[in-house]
Amino acid sequence: MESLMMLLIGVLVAVATYLVLSRTFIRVILGTAILSHAVHLLILTMGGLKKGDVPLLNQSNGPYTDALPQALILTAIVISFAVTAFVLVLAYRVYKTNGTDDFDKLGGSSDE
Amino acid sequence: MSNMVVLPMIVPIITGVLLVFLRDYIKLQRIVSLLTMLFVMGVSGTLLYVVQHQGIVKVDFSGWLPPFGILFVGDTFALILVLTASIVTILCLVYAFATIGERHEKMYFYPFVLFLIAGINGSFLTGDIFNLFVCFEVMLLASYVLIALGGEKIQLRESLKYVLINVVASWMFLVALAFLYGAVKTLNMAHIAQRVAEVGQDPMLTTVSIFFLIVFAVKAGLFFFFWLPGSYSVPPTAVQALFAALLTKVGIYALIRTFTLMFPLDQGVTHWLIGTLAGLTIILGCMGALAGKDVRTIATYNVVISVGFILIGLASGTEAGYAGAVYYLIHDILAKALLFLILGTVVYLTGEIVVKNMSGLIRNYPLFGWLYFITMCSIAGFPPLSGFLGKVLIGQGAVEGQNYVLLALGFASSIIVLYSLLRIFLASFFGETTISEEDRIPIPKLAMTSFVMLGVLIVGIGVGAEALSPFVEDAAETLANPAIYIDAVLANME
Questions:
Q1: Contact: B167, A32; criterion CB under 8 Å
Q2: Is residue A111 part of a domain?
Q3: Residue B381, min C-alpha distance to chain A (Å)
Q4: In this predicted model, what pLDDT tens digit does every residue of B237-279 receive, in sequence order?
Q5: Which domain holds residue A90?
Q6: Is the Cβ–Cβ distance between B274 and B311 less than 8 Å?
Q7: Nearest residue to B395 via CA among B413, B375, B372
Q8: A20 shares contact with chain B (CB less than 8 Å)
Q9: Is B88 part of any domain?
Q10: Does the N-terminal peptide bond of residue B66 adopt cis geometry, omega within 30 degrees of 0?
Q11: Looking at this predicted complex, what is its ipTM?
Protein backbone atom coordinates (compact mmCIF):
# COMPACT_ATOMS: atom_id res chain seq x y z
CA MET A 1 0.00 0.00 0.00
CA GLU A 2 2.79 2.41 0.90
CA SER A 3 4.52 1.79 -2.44
CA LEU A 4 1.30 2.51 -4.30
CA MET A 5 0.89 5.77 -2.38
CA MET A 6 4.46 6.79 -3.15
CA LEU A 7 3.82 6.16 -6.87
CA LEU A 8 0.70 8.32 -6.70
CA ILE A 9 2.64 11.08 -4.94
CA GLY A 10 5.32 10.84 -7.60
CA VAL A 11 2.77 11.26 -10.37
CA LEU A 12 1.20 14.24 -8.61
CA VAL A 13 4.59 15.92 -8.11
CA ALA A 14 5.46 15.32 -11.77
CA VAL A 15 2.20 16.88 -12.93
CA ALA A 16 2.61 19.80 -10.54
CA THR A 17 6.22 20.43 -11.60
CA TYR A 18 5.12 20.54 -15.24
CA LEU A 19 2.42 23.06 -14.38
CA VAL A 20 4.64 25.23 -12.16
CA LEU A 21 7.21 25.51 -14.94
CA SER A 22 4.65 26.79 -17.45
CA ARG A 23 4.16 30.47 -18.20
CA THR A 24 0.58 31.44 -17.48
CA PHE A 25 -0.37 32.47 -13.94
CA ILE A 26 -3.32 30.17 -13.52
CA ARG A 27 -1.41 27.04 -14.51
CA VAL A 28 1.37 27.89 -12.05
CA ILE A 29 -1.17 28.42 -9.25
CA LEU A 30 -2.93 25.14 -10.06
CA GLY A 31 0.51 23.54 -10.00
CA THR A 32 1.18 24.80 -6.45
CA ALA A 33 -2.24 23.50 -5.36
CA ILE A 34 -1.42 20.02 -6.69
CA LEU A 35 2.02 20.21 -5.06
CA SER A 36 0.37 20.77 -1.70
CA HIS A 37 -1.95 17.79 -2.24
CA ALA A 38 1.08 15.63 -3.00
CA VAL A 39 2.84 16.66 0.19
CA HIS A 40 -0.26 16.02 2.30
CA LEU A 41 -0.37 12.46 0.99
CA LEU A 42 3.35 12.21 1.67
CA ILE A 43 2.91 13.18 5.32
CA LEU A 44 0.13 10.61 5.65
CA THR A 45 2.25 7.89 4.11
CA MET A 46 5.39 8.72 6.09
CA GLY A 47 3.36 8.59 9.31
CA GLY A 48 2.47 4.99 8.46
CA LEU A 49 -0.81 3.93 6.88
CA LYS A 50 -3.44 2.18 9.01
CA LYS A 51 -1.61 -0.09 11.38
CA GLY A 52 -3.99 -0.29 14.32
CA ASP A 53 -7.32 0.73 15.81
CA VAL A 54 -8.99 4.08 16.20
CA PRO A 55 -6.97 6.08 18.73
CA LEU A 56 -9.78 6.34 21.33
CA LEU A 57 -8.88 5.01 24.76
CA ASN A 58 -12.10 3.19 25.66
CA GLN A 59 -12.84 1.72 22.25
CA SER A 60 -10.13 -0.91 22.02
CA ASN A 61 -6.98 -2.15 23.66
CA GLY A 62 -4.61 -1.00 20.93
CA PRO A 63 -2.30 -0.88 19.15
CA TYR A 64 -3.57 2.47 17.98
CA THR A 65 -3.08 4.27 14.68
CA ASP A 66 -0.88 7.36 14.90
CA ALA A 67 -3.27 10.32 14.77
CA LEU A 68 -0.63 13.02 14.52
CA PRO A 69 -0.16 13.00 10.70
CA GLN A 70 -3.86 13.80 10.29
CA ALA A 71 -3.52 16.77 12.61
CA LEU A 72 -0.49 18.00 10.69
CA ILE A 73 -2.26 17.62 7.35
CA LEU A 74 -5.31 19.46 8.63
CA THR A 75 -3.12 22.41 9.59
CA ALA A 76 -1.24 22.27 6.30
CA ILE A 77 -4.48 22.14 4.30
CA VAL A 78 -5.82 25.24 6.03
CA ILE A 79 -2.58 27.12 5.37
CA SER A 80 -2.37 26.09 1.72
CA PHE A 81 -6.04 27.00 1.31
CA ALA A 82 -5.39 30.50 2.63
CA VAL A 83 -2.28 30.99 0.52
CA THR A 84 -3.99 29.72 -2.65
CA ALA A 85 -6.94 32.05 -2.07
CA PHE A 86 -4.58 34.98 -1.58
CA VAL A 87 -2.44 34.18 -4.60
CA LEU A 88 -5.50 33.83 -6.85
CA VAL A 89 -6.67 37.32 -5.90
CA LEU A 90 -3.15 38.67 -6.30
CA ALA A 91 -2.79 37.07 -9.74
CA TYR A 92 -6.08 38.61 -10.80
CA ARG A 93 -4.89 42.06 -9.71
CA VAL A 94 -1.57 41.59 -11.49
CA TYR A 95 -3.47 40.58 -14.62
CA LYS A 96 -5.68 43.67 -14.38
CA THR A 97 -2.87 46.19 -13.77
CA ASN A 98 -0.15 44.70 -15.95
CA GLY A 99 -2.47 43.53 -18.71
CA THR A 100 -0.91 40.10 -19.16
CA ASP A 101 -1.11 36.66 -17.60
CA ASP A 102 2.23 35.53 -19.01
CA PHE A 103 5.35 35.55 -16.80
CA ASP A 104 7.60 36.20 -19.80
CA LYS A 105 5.75 39.36 -20.75
CA LEU A 106 5.63 40.54 -17.14
CA GLY A 107 9.27 41.63 -17.29
CA GLY A 108 11.71 41.31 -14.45
CA SER A 109 14.44 43.86 -13.86
CA SER A 110 13.50 46.44 -11.28
CA ASP A 111 15.21 49.38 -13.02
CA GLU A 112 12.73 49.74 -15.88
CA MET B 1 6.06 33.33 35.19
CA SER B 2 6.90 30.96 32.36
CA ASN B 3 3.58 31.77 30.70
CA MET B 4 5.16 35.08 29.71
CA VAL B 5 7.04 33.28 26.94
CA VAL B 6 3.89 33.15 24.85
CA LEU B 7 3.14 36.90 25.11
CA PRO B 8 5.50 38.14 22.34
CA MET B 9 3.46 36.14 19.85
CA ILE B 10 -0.06 36.25 21.24
CA VAL B 11 -0.31 39.94 22.14
CA PRO B 12 0.48 41.29 18.62
CA ILE B 13 -2.09 38.86 17.17
CA ILE B 14 -4.83 39.98 19.56
CA THR B 15 -4.17 43.69 19.09
CA GLY B 16 -3.75 43.15 15.33
CA VAL B 17 -7.21 41.62 15.12
CA LEU B 18 -8.61 44.45 17.25
CA LEU B 19 -7.09 47.05 14.96
CA VAL B 20 -8.83 45.53 11.95
CA PHE B 21 -12.08 46.77 13.49
CA LEU B 22 -10.65 50.23 14.19
CA ARG B 23 -9.87 50.93 10.55
CA ASP B 24 -10.95 54.57 10.50
CA TYR B 25 -9.31 55.64 13.77
CA ILE B 26 -5.77 56.22 12.55
CA LYS B 27 -4.50 57.95 15.71
CA LEU B 28 -5.78 55.09 17.85
CA GLN B 29 -4.22 52.52 15.51
CA ARG B 30 -0.85 54.25 15.86
CA ILE B 31 -1.05 54.39 19.64
CA VAL B 32 -2.20 50.79 20.04
CA SER B 33 0.42 49.34 17.71
CA LEU B 34 3.18 51.35 19.38
CA LEU B 35 2.03 50.33 22.87
CA THR B 36 1.85 46.69 21.79
CA MET B 37 5.43 46.73 20.58
CA LEU B 38 6.61 48.55 23.72
CA PHE B 39 4.90 45.86 25.77
CA VAL B 40 6.56 43.08 23.77
CA MET B 41 9.90 44.81 24.25
CA GLY B 42 9.33 44.97 27.99
CA VAL B 43 8.28 41.33 28.21
CA SER B 44 11.25 40.06 26.20
CA GLY B 45 13.65 42.21 28.20
CA THR B 46 12.25 40.82 31.46
CA LEU B 47 12.42 37.25 30.16
CA LEU B 48 16.02 37.78 29.07
CA TYR B 49 16.86 38.84 32.62
CA VAL B 50 15.00 35.84 34.07
CA VAL B 51 16.75 33.38 31.74
CA GLN B 52 20.12 34.86 32.65
CA HIS B 53 19.48 34.05 36.33
CA GLN B 54 17.28 30.94 36.30
CA GLY B 55 18.05 29.18 33.05
CA ILE B 56 15.86 28.43 30.05
CA VAL B 57 12.12 29.06 30.47
CA LYS B 58 9.45 27.12 28.61
CA VAL B 59 5.69 26.82 28.48
CA ASP B 60 3.92 23.57 27.56
CA PHE B 61 0.57 24.48 26.05
CA SER B 62 -2.46 23.01 27.87
CA GLY B 63 -0.11 21.17 30.18
CA TRP B 64 0.81 18.53 27.59
CA LEU B 65 4.29 17.56 28.64
CA PRO B 66 7.03 17.07 26.04
CA PRO B 67 7.31 15.33 23.65
CA PHE B 68 3.54 15.27 23.09
CA GLY B 69 2.43 18.90 23.14
CA ILE B 70 3.47 22.04 21.36
CA LEU B 71 5.71 24.26 23.44
CA PHE B 72 7.47 27.60 23.43
CA VAL B 73 11.04 27.75 24.67
CA GLY B 74 12.81 30.97 25.64
CA ASP B 75 16.56 30.60 25.60
CA THR B 76 18.93 33.56 25.49
CA PHE B 77 19.52 33.33 21.73
CA ALA B 78 15.81 33.45 20.87
CA LEU B 79 15.03 36.16 23.42
CA ILE B 80 17.87 38.43 22.30
CA LEU B 81 16.44 38.26 18.78
CA VAL B 82 12.87 38.90 19.99
CA LEU B 83 14.07 41.93 21.95
CA THR B 84 16.09 43.35 19.05
CA ALA B 85 13.24 42.70 16.61
CA SER B 86 10.74 44.55 18.78
CA ILE B 87 13.06 47.54 19.20
CA VAL B 88 13.57 47.78 15.44
CA THR B 89 9.84 47.43 14.82
CA ILE B 90 9.10 50.30 17.22
CA LEU B 91 11.52 52.55 15.37
CA CYS B 92 10.23 51.49 11.94
CA LEU B 93 6.70 52.22 13.16
CA VAL B 94 7.77 55.67 14.31
CA TYR B 95 9.23 56.27 10.85
CA ALA B 96 6.04 54.93 9.26
CA PHE B 97 3.85 57.35 11.29
CA ALA B 98 5.51 60.22 9.47
CA THR B 99 5.89 58.78 6.00
CA ILE B 100 3.61 55.89 5.14
CA GLY B 101 0.56 57.99 4.25
CA GLU B 102 -3.11 57.76 5.07
CA ARG B 103 -3.91 55.39 2.21
CA HIS B 104 -1.70 52.67 3.67
CA GLU B 105 -2.82 53.35 7.21
CA LYS B 106 -6.45 52.84 6.24
CA MET B 107 -5.65 49.66 4.36
CA TYR B 108 -4.70 47.72 7.49
CA PHE B 109 -0.99 48.55 7.47
CA TYR B 110 -0.62 48.36 11.26
CA PRO B 111 -2.50 45.07 11.73
CA PHE B 112 -0.29 43.42 9.14
CA VAL B 113 2.90 44.72 10.73
CA LEU B 114 1.67 43.23 14.01
CA PHE B 115 0.87 39.88 12.34
CA LEU B 116 4.32 39.92 10.77
CA ILE B 117 5.89 40.46 14.19
CA ALA B 118 3.73 37.71 15.71
CA GLY B 119 4.99 35.27 13.08
CA ILE B 120 8.60 36.34 13.56
CA ASN B 121 8.47 36.11 17.36
CA GLY B 122 6.68 32.77 17.15
CA SER B 123 9.40 31.41 14.86
CA PHE B 124 12.07 32.51 17.31
CA LEU B 125 10.37 31.07 20.38
CA THR B 126 8.79 27.81 19.28
CA GLY B 127 10.25 24.50 20.34
CA ASP B 128 8.27 22.39 17.90
CA ILE B 129 9.37 21.98 14.30
CA PHE B 130 5.85 21.86 12.85
CA ASN B 131 4.91 24.92 14.84
CA LEU B 132 7.95 26.59 13.28
CA PHE B 133 6.36 25.90 9.88
CA VAL B 134 3.08 27.44 11.02
CA CYS B 135 4.81 30.56 12.40
CA PHE B 136 6.78 30.89 9.17
CA GLU B 137 3.51 30.87 7.25
CA VAL B 138 1.96 33.51 9.53
CA MET B 139 4.99 35.70 8.92
CA LEU B 140 5.01 35.03 5.15
CA LEU B 141 1.31 35.72 4.65
CA ALA B 142 1.71 39.08 6.37
CA SER B 143 4.78 39.82 4.27
CA TYR B 144 2.94 38.94 1.03
CA VAL B 145 0.34 41.53 1.90
CA LEU B 146 2.87 44.17 2.96
CA ILE B 147 4.77 43.83 -0.33
CA ALA B 148 1.62 44.12 -2.44
CA LEU B 149 0.00 46.88 -0.34
CA GLY B 150 -0.19 50.03 -2.44
CA GLY B 151 -1.03 48.11 -5.57
CA GLU B 152 1.46 49.71 -7.95
CA LYS B 153 2.34 47.87 -11.15
CA ILE B 154 5.86 46.97 -10.09
CA GLN B 155 4.79 45.98 -6.56
CA LEU B 156 2.18 43.55 -7.85
CA ARG B 157 4.62 42.08 -10.32
CA GLU B 158 7.32 41.44 -7.73
CA SER B 159 4.91 40.25 -5.06
CA LEU B 160 3.49 37.52 -7.33
CA LYS B 161 6.98 36.13 -7.90
CA TYR B 162 7.82 36.43 -4.21
CA VAL B 163 4.66 34.56 -3.21
CA LEU B 164 5.18 31.73 -5.69
CA ILE B 165 8.82 31.21 -4.72
CA ASN B 166 7.84 31.06 -1.07
CA VAL B 167 4.96 28.67 -1.74
CA VAL B 168 7.37 26.24 -3.37
CA ALA B 169 9.86 26.69 -0.52
CA SER B 170 7.13 26.02 2.05
CA TRP B 171 6.24 22.91 0.11
CA MET B 172 9.81 21.70 0.49
CA PHE B 173 9.62 22.45 4.22
CA LEU B 174 6.64 20.09 4.46
CA VAL B 175 8.43 17.41 2.44
CA ALA B 176 11.41 17.63 4.80
CA LEU B 177 9.04 17.48 7.79
CA ALA B 178 7.31 14.38 6.42
CA PHE B 179 10.60 12.51 5.99
CA LEU B 180 11.83 13.67 9.38
CA TYR B 181 8.63 12.49 11.06
CA GLY B 182 8.88 9.18 9.21
CA ALA B 183 12.44 8.73 10.47
CA VAL B 184 12.27 9.87 14.11
CA LYS B 185 8.50 9.89 14.89
CA THR B 186 8.58 13.11 16.86
CA LEU B 187 8.26 16.85 16.20
CA ASN B 188 9.60 18.35 19.42
CA MET B 189 12.96 19.88 18.47
CA ALA B 190 14.73 18.81 21.65
CA HIS B 191 13.30 15.30 21.36
CA ILE B 192 14.38 15.11 17.69
CA ALA B 193 17.87 16.10 18.80
CA GLN B 194 17.85 13.36 21.44
CA ARG B 195 16.63 10.69 19.02
CA VAL B 196 19.11 11.73 16.32
CA ALA B 197 21.90 11.50 18.88
CA GLU B 198 20.69 8.04 20.00
CA VAL B 199 20.50 6.44 16.56
CA GLY B 200 23.41 8.42 15.12
CA GLN B 201 23.06 10.77 12.19
CA ASP B 202 22.98 8.28 9.32
CA PRO B 203 23.05 9.37 5.63
CA MET B 204 19.24 9.29 5.52
CA LEU B 205 18.97 11.86 8.33
CA THR B 206 21.73 13.94 6.79
CA THR B 207 19.75 14.04 3.54
CA VAL B 208 16.70 15.21 5.45
CA SER B 209 18.83 17.88 7.11
CA ILE B 210 20.03 19.07 3.70
CA PHE B 211 16.36 19.44 2.68
CA PHE B 212 15.93 21.73 5.68
CA LEU B 213 19.10 23.54 4.68
CA ILE B 214 17.68 24.28 1.21
CA VAL B 215 14.34 25.47 2.64
CA PHE B 216 15.88 27.81 5.18
CA ALA B 217 18.49 28.96 2.66
CA VAL B 218 15.69 30.16 0.37
CA LYS B 219 14.08 32.04 3.28
CA ALA B 220 17.37 33.47 4.53
CA GLY B 221 18.68 34.44 1.10
CA LEU B 222 21.67 32.12 1.50
CA PHE B 223 22.84 31.43 -2.07
CA PHE B 224 19.20 31.19 -3.23
CA PHE B 225 18.76 34.95 -3.04
CA PHE B 226 17.56 35.51 -6.61
CA TRP B 227 14.16 36.68 -5.33
CA LEU B 228 15.55 39.12 -2.77
CA PRO B 229 16.72 42.22 -4.68
CA GLY B 230 13.46 42.48 -6.63
CA SER B 231 10.99 42.02 -3.82
CA TYR B 232 12.90 44.04 -1.20
CA SER B 233 13.08 47.15 -3.38
CA VAL B 234 9.39 47.65 -4.22
CA PRO B 235 7.44 48.26 -0.97
CA PRO B 236 7.40 51.59 0.96
CA THR B 237 10.57 52.46 2.88
CA ALA B 238 9.31 51.50 6.34
CA VAL B 239 8.32 48.04 5.08
CA GLN B 240 11.61 47.64 3.23
CA ALA B 241 13.49 48.38 6.42
CA LEU B 242 11.43 45.87 8.40
CA PHE B 243 11.99 43.18 5.78
CA ALA B 244 15.71 43.85 5.43
CA ALA B 245 16.12 43.87 9.19
CA LEU B 246 14.00 40.87 10.12
CA LEU B 247 12.84 38.47 7.39
CA THR B 248 16.17 37.00 6.36
CA LYS B 249 17.19 36.84 10.03
CA VAL B 250 14.37 34.40 10.76
CA GLY B 251 15.81 32.08 8.10
CA ILE B 252 19.27 32.47 9.63
CA TYR B 253 17.87 31.74 13.08
CA ALA B 254 16.21 28.56 11.76
CA LEU B 255 19.45 27.45 10.11
CA ILE B 256 21.48 28.01 13.28
CA ARG B 257 18.89 26.24 15.43
CA THR B 258 18.59 23.28 13.05
CA PHE B 259 22.30 22.67 12.65
CA THR B 260 23.39 23.30 16.23
CA LEU B 261 20.53 21.49 17.96
CA MET B 262 18.99 18.84 15.72
CA PHE B 263 21.65 17.83 13.19
CA PRO B 264 25.05 18.69 14.63
CA LEU B 265 26.67 15.28 14.20
CA ASP B 266 27.66 15.08 10.54
CA GLN B 267 29.52 18.39 10.31
CA GLY B 268 31.78 17.15 7.54
CA VAL B 269 28.83 17.23 5.15
CA THR B 270 26.37 19.79 6.50
CA HIS B 271 28.74 22.46 7.82
CA TRP B 272 30.95 22.12 4.75
CA LEU B 273 27.87 22.74 2.60
CA ILE B 274 26.81 25.75 4.70
CA GLY B 275 30.33 27.14 4.48
CA THR B 276 30.46 26.71 0.71
CA LEU B 277 27.06 28.31 0.23
CA ALA B 278 28.06 31.17 2.56
CA GLY B 279 31.25 31.77 0.58
CA LEU B 280 29.41 31.76 -2.75
CA THR B 281 26.73 34.06 -1.31
CA ILE B 282 29.40 36.56 -0.28
CA ILE B 283 31.08 36.48 -3.71
CA LEU B 284 27.82 36.87 -5.64
CA GLY B 285 26.52 39.51 -3.23
CA CYS B 286 29.72 41.53 -3.66
CA MET B 287 29.36 41.35 -7.44
CA GLY B 288 25.81 42.64 -7.15
CA ALA B 289 26.80 45.45 -4.77
CA LEU B 290 29.66 46.54 -7.04
CA ALA B 291 27.57 46.41 -10.20
CA GLY B 292 24.55 48.24 -8.71
CA LYS B 293 23.90 51.72 -10.05
CA ASP B 294 20.95 52.67 -7.85
CA VAL B 295 20.82 52.90 -4.07
CA ARG B 296 18.22 50.15 -3.68
CA THR B 297 20.20 47.52 -5.58
CA ILE B 298 23.33 48.35 -3.58
CA ALA B 299 21.42 48.15 -0.29
CA THR B 300 19.69 44.84 -1.07
CA TYR B 301 22.94 43.19 -2.11
CA ASN B 302 24.42 44.37 1.17
CA VAL B 303 21.72 42.31 2.90
CA VAL B 304 22.84 39.29 0.88
CA ILE B 305 26.50 39.77 1.83
CA SER B 306 25.68 39.96 5.53
CA VAL B 307 23.68 36.72 5.35
CA GLY B 308 26.75 34.94 3.98
CA PHE B 309 28.95 36.57 6.61
CA ILE B 310 26.79 35.56 9.59
CA LEU B 311 26.68 31.97 8.39
CA ILE B 312 30.47 31.76 8.36
CA GLY B 313 30.03 31.78 12.14
CA LEU B 314 27.72 28.76 11.93
CA ALA B 315 29.94 26.95 9.41
CA SER B 316 32.95 27.28 11.72
CA GLY B 317 31.12 25.15 14.32
CA THR B 318 32.96 26.77 17.26
CA GLU B 319 31.65 28.63 20.28
CA ALA B 320 33.46 31.82 19.27
CA GLY B 321 31.87 31.57 15.84
CA TYR B 322 28.41 31.20 17.36
CA ALA B 323 29.00 34.16 19.68
CA GLY B 324 30.11 36.20 16.67
CA ALA B 325 27.01 35.17 14.74
CA VAL B 326 24.72 36.21 17.61
CA TYR B 327 26.54 39.49 18.06
CA TYR B 328 26.51 40.21 14.34
CA LEU B 329 22.80 39.33 14.07
CA ILE B 330 21.95 42.00 16.68
CA HIS B 331 24.14 44.52 14.89
CA ASP B 332 22.82 43.63 11.46
CA ILE B 333 19.15 43.91 12.43
CA LEU B 334 19.73 47.47 13.68
CA ALA B 335 22.19 48.60 11.02
CA LYS B 336 20.26 47.26 8.02
CA ALA B 337 17.06 48.88 9.29
CA LEU B 338 18.85 52.22 9.57
CA LEU B 339 20.53 51.82 6.17
CA PHE B 340 17.23 51.12 4.41
CA LEU B 341 15.43 53.92 6.23
CA ILE B 342 18.14 56.45 5.33
CA LEU B 343 18.41 55.38 1.70
CA GLY B 344 14.63 55.34 1.37
CA THR B 345 14.59 58.90 2.70
CA VAL B 346 17.31 59.88 0.23
CA VAL B 347 15.05 58.65 -2.58
CA TYR B 348 12.14 60.60 -1.06
CA LEU B 349 14.18 63.80 -0.79
CA THR B 350 15.75 63.76 -4.24
CA GLY B 351 13.21 61.79 -6.25
CA GLU B 352 16.14 59.89 -7.75
CA ILE B 353 17.37 56.36 -7.20
CA VAL B 354 20.49 56.40 -9.37
CA VAL B 355 23.54 57.30 -7.28
CA LYS B 356 25.17 59.52 -9.94
CA ASN B 357 22.16 61.79 -10.25
CA MET B 358 22.24 63.01 -6.64
CA SER B 359 24.70 65.32 -5.03
CA GLY B 360 25.45 67.38 -1.96
CA LEU B 361 22.80 66.13 0.42
CA ILE B 362 25.02 66.69 3.44
CA ARG B 363 24.93 70.48 2.94
CA ASN B 364 21.17 70.60 3.38
CA TYR B 365 20.87 67.79 5.90
CA PRO B 366 24.10 67.64 7.96
CA LEU B 367 22.90 65.37 10.77
CA PHE B 368 21.24 63.03 8.30
CA GLY B 369 24.47 62.79 6.28
CA TRP B 370 26.62 61.99 9.29
CA LEU B 371 24.15 59.36 10.46
CA TYR B 372 24.61 57.66 7.10
CA PHE B 373 28.35 57.87 7.65
CA ILE B 374 28.03 56.15 11.05
CA THR B 375 25.84 53.42 9.55
CA MET B 376 28.36 52.84 6.79
CA CYS B 377 31.28 52.60 9.20
CA SER B 378 29.33 50.28 11.44
CA ILE B 379 28.36 47.91 8.60
CA ALA B 380 31.95 47.90 7.35
CA GLY B 381 33.03 46.97 10.89
CA PHE B 382 34.99 49.97 12.18
CA PRO B 383 35.71 49.92 15.90
CA PRO B 384 34.15 50.94 18.23
CA LEU B 385 30.84 50.63 16.34
CA SER B 386 28.50 47.68 16.57
CA GLY B 387 29.74 45.62 13.61
CA PHE B 388 33.30 45.38 14.86
CA LEU B 389 33.09 42.83 17.65
CA GLY B 390 30.86 40.49 15.64
CA LYS B 391 33.39 40.49 12.82
CA VAL B 392 36.27 39.83 15.20
CA LEU B 393 34.47 36.90 16.86
CA ILE B 394 33.34 35.35 13.56
CA GLY B 395 36.92 35.69 12.35
CA GLN B 396 38.18 34.02 15.53
CA GLY B 397 35.67 31.20 15.01
CA ALA B 398 36.79 30.72 11.42
CA VAL B 399 40.43 30.50 12.54
CA GLU B 400 39.56 27.96 15.25
CA GLY B 401 37.55 25.96 12.72
CA GLN B 402 40.42 26.34 10.20
CA ASN B 403 38.15 27.78 7.51
CA TYR B 404 40.82 30.10 6.14
CA VAL B 405 39.16 30.56 2.74
CA LEU B 406 35.94 31.72 4.39
CA LEU B 407 37.95 33.97 6.70
CA ALA B 408 39.61 35.65 3.73
CA LEU B 409 36.32 35.97 1.83
CA GLY B 410 34.54 37.40 4.88
CA PHE B 411 37.08 40.12 5.48
CA ALA B 412 37.53 40.89 1.78
CA SER B 413 33.77 41.40 1.62
CA SER B 414 34.04 44.11 4.32
CA ILE B 415 36.16 46.15 1.93
CA ILE B 416 33.65 45.70 -0.91
CA VAL B 417 30.81 46.66 1.45
CA LEU B 418 32.72 49.77 2.48
CA TYR B 419 33.43 50.65 -1.16
CA SER B 420 29.83 50.20 -2.29
CA LEU B 421 28.45 52.33 0.55
CA LEU B 422 31.23 54.90 0.35
CA ARG B 423 30.38 55.39 -3.32
CA ILE B 424 26.89 56.50 -2.30
CA PHE B 425 28.36 58.74 0.40
CA LEU B 426 30.81 60.47 -1.92
CA ALA B 427 28.46 60.82 -4.87
CA SER B 428 25.18 61.61 -3.15
CA PHE B 429 26.12 63.30 0.10
CA PHE B 430 29.30 65.20 -0.80
CA GLY B 431 29.81 67.57 -3.69
CA GLU B 432 27.84 70.57 -4.91
CA THR B 433 24.24 70.55 -3.86
CA THR B 434 21.63 70.33 -6.59
CA ILE B 435 18.77 71.43 -4.37
CA SER B 436 18.61 75.11 -3.43
CA GLU B 437 17.84 76.21 0.12
CA GLU B 438 14.27 77.21 -0.83
CA ASP B 439 13.36 73.91 -2.52
CA ARG B 440 14.66 71.91 0.39
CA ILE B 441 12.07 69.37 1.57
CA PRO B 442 12.24 69.02 5.35
CA ILE B 443 12.77 65.57 6.84
CA PRO B 444 9.80 64.76 9.11
CA LYS B 445 10.67 65.09 12.81
CA LEU B 446 9.48 61.59 13.68
CA ALA B 447 11.60 60.09 10.90
CA MET B 448 14.62 61.97 12.20
CA THR B 449 13.89 60.72 15.73
CA SER B 450 13.95 57.13 14.58
CA PHE B 451 17.24 57.67 12.68
CA VAL B 452 18.87 59.23 15.71
CA MET B 453 17.70 56.49 18.06
CA LEU B 454 18.91 53.75 15.74
CA GLY B 455 22.22 55.60 15.40
CA VAL B 456 22.54 55.86 19.18
CA LEU B 457 21.81 52.14 19.51
CA ILE B 458 24.46 51.24 16.92
CA VAL B 459 27.09 53.31 18.72
CA GLY B 460 25.82 52.10 22.11
CA ILE B 461 26.06 48.43 21.22
CA GLY B 462 29.60 48.92 19.97
CA VAL B 463 30.79 50.93 22.98
CA GLY B 464 28.74 49.03 25.55
CA ALA B 465 29.68 45.58 24.25
CA GLU B 466 30.87 44.67 27.73
CA ALA B 467 27.34 44.93 29.13
CA LEU B 468 25.96 42.78 26.34
CA SER B 469 28.62 40.09 26.49
CA PRO B 470 27.14 37.92 29.31
CA PHE B 471 23.97 37.47 27.24
CA VAL B 472 25.82 36.74 24.01
CA GLU B 473 28.15 34.32 25.77
CA ASP B 474 25.20 32.52 27.34
CA ALA B 475 23.48 32.24 23.95
CA ALA B 476 26.64 30.90 22.33
CA GLU B 477 27.20 28.42 25.15
CA THR B 478 23.69 27.00 24.71
CA LEU B 479 24.25 26.74 20.96
CA ALA B 480 27.61 25.02 21.37
CA ASN B 481 26.26 22.59 24.00
CA PRO B 482 22.79 21.53 22.83
CA ALA B 483 22.51 19.30 25.92
CA ILE B 484 21.64 22.43 27.98
CA TYR B 485 18.64 23.11 25.74
CA ILE B 486 17.56 19.48 25.55
CA ASP B 487 17.76 18.94 29.32
CA ALA B 488 15.76 22.09 30.00
CA VAL B 489 13.00 21.14 27.56
CA LEU B 490 12.75 17.47 28.43
CA ALA B 491 13.22 18.00 32.18
CA ASN B 492 9.98 16.27 33.15
CA MET B 493 10.31 13.37 30.71
CA GLU B 494 11.57 10.04 31.96
A1: yes
A2: no
A3: 30
A4: 999 999 999 999 999 999 999 999 999 888 888 999 999 999 9
A5: 2-105
A6: yes
A7: B413
A8: yes
A9: no
A10: no
A11: 0.92
